[in-house]
Design goal:
It contains 2 helices and 13 strands; from the N terminus they run H-E-E-E-E-E-E-E-E-E-H-E-E-E-E. The chain has about 200 residues and is an alpha+beta fold.
Length: about 200
């Protein structure tokens, strides 16, 4: 005996609804499998707050941070990184790497001098590639970095709280390097490493 049309229609509707929800569940599971590892292990978003990295990075910009590269190599001089603020690990800062492990970093007369095994007499960093013209680095200091320490500074030297005031950064505190500026759209860019040059002390 054939089922009434309304019963058949009701079963079809239930099957359609069940199929719809099953598709939603599959999409959710795929998102969990793909997005969560990407978000927590490969990249993460970061909003720039403040003026310490101007003109390279401006307040309110949305960045994508590469967390993967430093699992395969060490951070390089000139790279801009996001890290946990040593005095309050719940806060995240953005600065540029100036000194590497084993370096002696000197700030004197508005200049940054690097001394290490390669440059035993010391060299002046030429930061004209990313600092505004006429920028001078304030402070007087002489710091020898340990085997896991980095010296970081903001590009806007007069408005930056950085290693000049709170000391070197430990390797484990580094989250990753800036990779993409996603917003504002008219400043969208994929960042390249801007290594400083070296000038003779003489």
């Amino acid at each position: 005996m054939d089922e009434p049309n309304d019963t058949v229609g009701a079963k079809a509707a239930l099957m359609s609804i069940g199929s719809f929800f099953w598709e939603l569940i599959k999409v959710f599971l795929i998102a969990v499998v793909i997005i969560i590892p990407v978000r927590y292990f490969l990249v993460q978003p970061f909003f720039v707050r403040g003026a310490s990295m101007e003109p390279s990075y401006e307040d309110g910009e949305y960045l994508v941070v590469d967390e993967l590269s430093y699992r395969w190599r060490e951070p390089q001089r000139g790279e801009v990184i996001v890290f946990r603020y040593p005095n309050n690990p719940s806060q995240f800062f953005i600065k540029r790497i100036i000194g590497l492990p084993g370096d002696t970093v000197r700030v004197n007369d508005g200049r940054v001098v690097i001394q290490n095994d390669q440059y035993q007499q010391g060299v002046v960093l030429d930061e004209s590639g990313y600092l505004s013209a006429g920028t001078r680095t304030g402070g007087q200091l002489d710091v020898r970095l340990g085997s896991d320490e980095y010296f970081v500074m903001g590009d806007n030297r007069s408005a930056s709280s950085d290693s000049r005031s709170w000391g070197p950064l430990k390797r484990f505190e580094i989250v990753g390097r800036t990779w993409i500026r996603a917003y504002p759209f008219d400043r969208f860019s994929v960042f390249e490493i801007m290594k400083p040059g070296y000038l003779s002390l003489q």
